[in-house]
Design brief:
2 domains, Jelly Rolls, five-stranded antiparallel β-sheet, four-stranded antiparallel β-sheet
Length: 152
């Protein structure tokens, strides 16, 4: 497959929003792979510091009125907190897919009658492709992401 577009970026803690990329397809394609990857989805045990524990405990108390401490707090940091980013695609303003997988790398694949779950099979691609990175939660500063589009 031929790479049509590739971009990388960095998002920081607490960012919530959308980042849209618009690509004008110079010719007609019949297969498409929209790939997306990011790092730092979860905290590791080594990253848990007294400062992080205090910060999370304070935020949970403020937002939810709940007190977390000790093993329960560590478990929440390791298991419940995560960076959550999804991808959505449109072709000439027509929705062709959105995936919400909790994977740090995922693909939206279109191949004639087949499409990745969450996507609509599309026979050909021409015109304007818009890919929207939907950022719901980022838990660490300096979270890197990469978006790439390949086609045949």
């Amino acid at each position: 497959m031929k790479t049509l577009y590739s971009v990388e970026g960095i998002i920081n803690r607490d960012f919530v929003g959308q980042i849209a990329y618009t690509i004008s397809l110079g010719e007609t394609y019949h297969k498409l792979d929209i790939g997306f990857a990011f790092d730092q989805q979860r905290f590791t045990a080594e990253e848990i510091t007294p400062e992080l524990e205090k910060q999370v405990a304070d935020e949970v108390s403020e937002k939810y009125g709940k007190t977390l401490e000790g093993a329960e707090l560590r478990q929440a940091i390791l298991s419940d907190m995560k960076t959550e980013i999804h991808t959505l695609a449109m072709l000439d303003d027509t929705f062709i897919g959105c995936i919400h997988r909790q994977l740090t790398e995922r693909h939206m694949i279109y191949d004639g009658d087949y499409a990745t779950e969450g996507c609509i099979p599309t026979a050909s691609f021409e015109g304007v492709l818009k890919v929207v990175v939907l950022v719901f939660n980022v838990i660490k500063d300096g979270t890197h992401y990469r978006l790439w589009i390949q086609a045949e």
